[in-house]
Design goal:
This protein is of the alpha+beta class. The protein folds into 2 domains: 8-84, DnaA, N-terminal domain (GMP Synthetase, Chain A, domain 3, 2-Layer Sandwich); 139-252. The chain has helices at residues 8-22, 25-32, 52-61, 63-74, 91-103, 124-129, 145-148, 150-168, 180-186, 191-198, 201-206, 245-252, and strands at 36-41, 44-49, 79-84, 211-215, 219-222, 228-231, 234-237. A 3-stranded mixed β-sheet has the order 1-2-3. Strands 4-7 form a two-stranded antiparallel sheet. Strand 5 (219-222) and strand 6 form a beta hairpin. Helix 1 packs across helix 4 (63-74) and helix 8 (150-168) packs across helix 9. The longest helix has 19 residues, at 150-168. The chain starts with 7 loop residues before the first helix and ends with a helix. 17% of the residues are buried.
């Protein structure tokens, strides 16, 4: 048993959800999507994979990442092992299957061939930039850019993308935590510049309808350690773009 109220199988599903957000879709679909929870005992997760290629890929590339995720979810140190999963077969059915195979043996040249494929980047640019990972915004946002200016336009993009990655697309209306560093990075600015913009009342006036600073002043509360801790500042991010003021006036007219 673990020290958390979260069941091990549920913890694995939570880790899968996070991997789906963090990984390239092609890599996730190829190597991770078809994995399955097998067992959890004495702090060791056993995860089944469809074949040996998947087990080797996951063991070499994701063991440390998944271990860190599951340790955080369960709030205790765990280990992760990947195995090639096998579905249980009834002994009688297995005997009948062997008999049938002997009677209808397939010539070796007709056996289904399994190929091992490895993607090769054409340049170091593709490997570093990963152009398949993009930030998508509605085309209507182009009408906002002249009103906001480049810096504030990117600031909205940073808030929007951070909210999307945190889970806003799956559970709209729920509050999610997002590091300020991530919002700043998606906004194309340093954390210091992000804080400078956040401190200006004019920023939120111009971003009205897109990002609302619900609680922009730091608040403090006592934690379990009896020390004061600053609570996260609360911002409401519009995932559906409102009309620009000029378009709203035209519509009303």
């Amino acid at each position: 048993m673990n020290g958390s109220s979260i069941q091990p199988e549920r913890a694995w599903q939570m880790a899968l959800d996070q991997l789906r957000l963090d990984m390239q879709k092609a890599s996730f679909d190829t190597w991770v999507r078809d994995t399955s929870f097998v067992s959890y005992e004495d702090g060791v997760f056993i995860i089944g994979t469809p074949n040996a290629y998947g087990r080797e890929w996951l063991a070499s590339r994701l063991t440390s990442t998944v271990t860190r995720m599951l340790t955080g979810i369960l709030n205790q140190q765990v280990e992760v092992q990947f195995i090639v999963g096998e579905e249980p077969v009834d002994e009688d059915e297995e005997a009948e299957g062997d008999k049938y195979v002997q009677q209808t043996a397939i010539p070796p040249e007709q056996h289904q061939e399994v190929l091992a494929l490895q993607a090769a980047y054409q340049s170091v640019y593709d490997e570093i930039v990963r152009p398949d990972q993009v930030i998508v915004i509605p085309g209507y946002f182009l009408r906002y850019i002249p009103l906001l200016g480049v810096e504030l336009a990117w600031l909205y993009i940073g808030f929007r993308q951070a909210a999307y990655e945190a889970g806003a697309a799956r559970q709209p209306g729920k509050k999610f935590g997002a590091p300020a560093q991530k919002v700043a990075r998606y906004s194309g600015m340093s954390l210091r510049t992000f804080r400078r913009y956040s401190a200006k009342p004019d920023t939120w006036q111009r971003l009205r309808g897109l990002v609302t600073a619900v609680e922009d002043r730091p608040r403090w509360q006592h934690g379990n350690d009896n020390h004061p801790h600053r609570t996260p500042r609360f911002y409401r991010v519009a995932m559906t773009l409102p009309l620009t003021p000029s378009d709203e006036l035209s519509l009303r007219a």
